[in-house]
Amino acid sequence: MIDLSIKFKQISLVCMLGASLAGCGGSDSDSNSQNNSATEEATVSKAVSALVQTATGTALEGAEISIAGQILKTDANGKIISTVRIPQSAKSVIVTFKKAGFITQSVELKVEDLAQLTANLLPVKQTLTVAKIEDEQVIQAAFMNAQISIPANAFVIEGTTQAATGQVTVEFTPWDITGSDLNAMPANGVAVDAQGNPALLISAGMITATFTNSAGQKLQLKQGVSADIQMDLPLTSINNQAMTVGTSIPMWYFDPKTGKWKEEGTPGTVISSVTSPTGLAVHATVTHFSTWNWDFKFENPGEVNVKCKSAATYVPCHITAKVELKDGSGLTKTSSIPAEGVDIVNMPTEGTIYWTAKDTTGTLIGSVTSQLPGDKNVVIDLGTPATSNKVSCTLKNGTPVACSGKFTTTVNGDEKNAEFTAPEEGVNVLTGLKSSNNTLVWLAYSAITLEGDQWVRYRGSKVSGPKADVKIVLDDKEVVAADKGLSFYIQCIYETAHPDLVGKPCNVNVSVGTNDFGQETELRFTVPFNEKKLVRLPNQFAGFEWLEEGKITNFRVTGSMLQGTFCGYANGTEGFKRDDPQQFVVYLFNNGIPSDNPEYFCQMPT
Predict the structure, then answer these.
(1) Rounded CA gap, 296 and 235, in Å?
(2) Which backbone phi and psi does 293 adopt, to 5 degrees?
(3) CA–CA separation, 284 vs 273, rounded Å?
(4) Quick one: DSSP state of residue 21?
(5) How far is CA 125 from CA 141, 176, 402, in A?
(6) Distance between CA 488 and CA 584 in Å, rounded?
(7) What pLDDT does 300 receive?
(8) PROSITE patterns from the entry (predicted)?
(9) pLDDT value of position 30
(10) Pseudo-torsion of CA 516, 522, 524, 525, nearest 10°?
C-alpha cells in the first residue's frame, strides 16, 4: 500500500490527487508500463528497497514482491534490498505484493520510486467451502454479519465461458473500518471515478471475496449475472456525514492490473439491520468479485509536514499515518519518505493522526500522535525497540498455525498494548513500549475454522520478558459464530405486469418470534420485483422450535414497494425443515399509503 497522496510541495495539488505514484508528467500507464511492447527492448537496472508489514505493523518474512516479471522475497525484518531489470522506455511499473494467507495488493509506481517503497497486507479472515457453487445460496461470514447472495449457475472459470460447478473455496474478508484493517487499504484509497477523474476515498465498508475451484482455477460471475453483498456499518457518520437508512454510497472496486480503485455500477445503500450494533448495514449489487468498497470522495485542504529522526539526524523512513476524524471515521496513508521529509496534502482540518514509522532497515521504530489543526509539523523519533520478541503459535498437538493478537504491559503506571499478526513461521514483534515491570502478557487467536455447524478459533496466552522468544500454545476453544441461519425463498408479485414495478426493488419485512427474546424481531431484505430470491436469517434464527431445529415460534413475511404505495403479505407457514427451504410469495396490492420516511414500511391493505 503506497501513499499516492504524499508528494513534495512544489508538485501541484492536481498531481497529488492523481491516481499513481507514477506521478504527473508521465505518460499513460497502459503505453508506458513494463508490458507496453510485445517486442524485446533494452533494459536498465534499478535498485529496489522495500518494507512489507502486516496491517498491525509486524514485519512479514517471505512476502513476494513482483516487478516486471521478477520476484523478490522479504527477509526476517520484512525487507528487500535488491535490483531489477526494467524496460528502458518504461516510466512506470505495476508492483504486486503477495503472501499466502494475506490479501494480495498491487500499485503503479514511477520507476524512480522503486528505490524506496512500502506496503501493508491484511490476513484473509475466513476460508469457507461451498459444496455446490452452481446452487443459489447465501454465503455468510462470521464477522460483521457480512454475506454474499448469489443466484444459481452464476459462476464461470475466469477468462472463459465454461460454467463452474462443484466444490469451491471462498476466501471471505470483511474489513473493519474502525480498527487496524484500514492500514492495509490497497493504494491508500487512490481511485479513478466514473468520469475518469482522480480521487481519494474514505471507506464506509469493504469486502474482499475470491472463489477458487478444486483445480485451483479462479472463478468469476458470468456476464449478465449479479450478486448482492452486505455487511454491518459500524459507524453512524462517515467523513462527518450522518449515515441513515437510504443514504447512497458510491461503489468502487480494486483493479490489480492498474493498482487503483475504480468507480463502477449502481451506488450502494445504507439499510436497517437488527444484527448490526448501530442498527445499520451497507448493501450493494456487484457484477464481478474483487475487493469492493463503499466510499465517499475525501477532499480536504489540510496539510502536514512529516520527518523521521534518529540520533539527532533526519533519516529516510517508512510511515503509516492513521487519520481519525471527529466522528470516528478515518483513513490511512502509508508511504516511504526521504530524509528531508514531505508535505502530506488532503488532510482534514480537524482530527487526530496516529503516526508509526520504521527506518529503512526495519529495525528502528518510532511513534507519535498529533492533532489538527494545531500540529502542522511532525517529527517521529526513531530508536532501538524497547521490546523485541520472536512470536509463534502452535495448536495443542504442536502444529504451527498463523495467529494474531496483542500483548499488554504497564508503562509508567498505565496499561498499554500492541497488536501483532504472525504467520505459521512466526514473526519478530518490535515496539517502543518501555515496560515498567519487564512483563509482557500475550494473548493470541488462530484463524477461524468450521467445525460441524460452528465457526471456532483457538486462543492461548503467555507471559514473557521484553526480549524473549514467545511460543504461544492455542489450547482454548472459542465458538465465534454459528453457521445455521434458516434459508428460504421470497418473491414479490402483482396481479398484472405493472410498469411502475418492473425493475424496482421490493422491500421485505420478516417478523420472527422466539421464546428467548419475548418479542418479534423485524428483519429487512430487498428482492427484485417478480424474481425468486434466496434469503438467509441471522445465525440465531436456525429453525423452528417444534421441529427441534431452533427456537423460532412464529414467522411472518410482508412486502412493500414504492414507499409503501404497494403493500402485501405472503402465505403463512407452521414451519419447515432446514433442508427443505420454502418459497414465500408476497401478493402486492395497490392501495397502501406512501411515506417519505425511510423507517416507514407500509399500512397493510384490509
Answers:
(1) 14
(2) -135, 125
(3) 14
(4) B
(5) 9, 11, 11
(6) 8
(7) 86
(8) PROKAR_LIPOPROTEIN (PS51257)
(9) 44
(10) 50
For residue 451, the SS3 value is strand
The fold of the 6-121 domain, in CATH, is Immunoglobulin-like (2.60.40)
* Top CATH class, 302-381: mainly beta
Sign of CA dihedral 48, 53, 58, 62: negative
pLDDT in tens, 111-159: 988 998 999 999 999 999 999 999 999 998 989 999 999 999 999 999 9
SS3 20: coil
Question: Are 603 and 564 a contacting pair, CB within 8 Å?
Answer: yes
In the prediction, which pLDDT does 601 show? Answer: 65
CA 304 to CA 302: how far, in whole Å?
Answer: 7
* Cα distances (angstroms) measured from residue 584 to each of 36, 120, 395, 539, 573: 55, 46, 46, 20, 9
Residues 126-297, CATH architecture? Sandwich (2.60)
Q: How many CB atoms within 10 Å of residue 117?
A: 24
The whole-angstrom separation of Cα 189 and Cα 331 is 8
Number of CB atoms found within 10 A of residue 72's CB: 16
Record the cell numbers describing residue 393, joined without a space: 503459535
The Cα 337–Cα 306 span in angstroms is: 9
* Interacting residues of 420 by C-beta distance below 8 A, sequence separation 6+: 54, 56, 58, 391, 404, 405, 406, 407, 427, 429
The residue assigned the cell 508489514 is 53
Query: What angle is formed at CA 291 by the lines to CA 92 and CA 402, rounded to 5 degrees?
Result: 100
Residue 492 to residue 107: CA distance in whole angstroms: 44
Q: Using CA atoms, how far apart are residues 369 and 23, in angstroms rounded to an integer?
A: 29
Per-residue pLDDT of 327-373, as tens digits, reads: 999 999 888 999 999 898 888 989 999 999 999 888 899 999 999 99
The CATH number of 387-482 is which of 3.30.230.10, 3.30.559.30, 2.60.40.1120, 3.40.50.720? 2.60.40.1120
User: Torsion angle, CA of 594/600/605/606, rounded to 10 degrees?
Assistant: -130
Q: Which residues pair with 370 in a beta bridge?
A: 353
Distance CA 437, CA 441 (A): 11
Measured CA to CA, the distance from residue 45 to residue 336 in angstroms comes to 21
Amino acid at 426: G
Q: Which amino acid is at 356?
A: T
Show the low-confidence residues of the chain (pLDDT under 50): 1-38
Determine the Cα–Cα distance for residues 267 and 249; give it in Å rounded to an integer. Answer: 5
The burial of 21, by beta-carbon neighbours within 10 Å (0-12 exposed, 13-18 middle, 19 or more buried), is given as buried
Residue given cell 453483498 in the structure block: 229
| Cβ contact 331:396 at 8 Å | no
Rounded to 5°, angle at Cα 349 from 344 and 354: 60
The C-alpha atoms of residue 392 and residue 468 are separated, in whole angstroms, by 12
Q: Residue 5: what pLDDT?
A: 38
C-alpha cell recorded at residue 260? 487503483
Residue holding cell 513476494? Answer: 64
DSSP 383-433: B--SEEEEEEEEETTS-EE-EEEEEEEEETTEEEEEEEEE-TT-EEEEE--
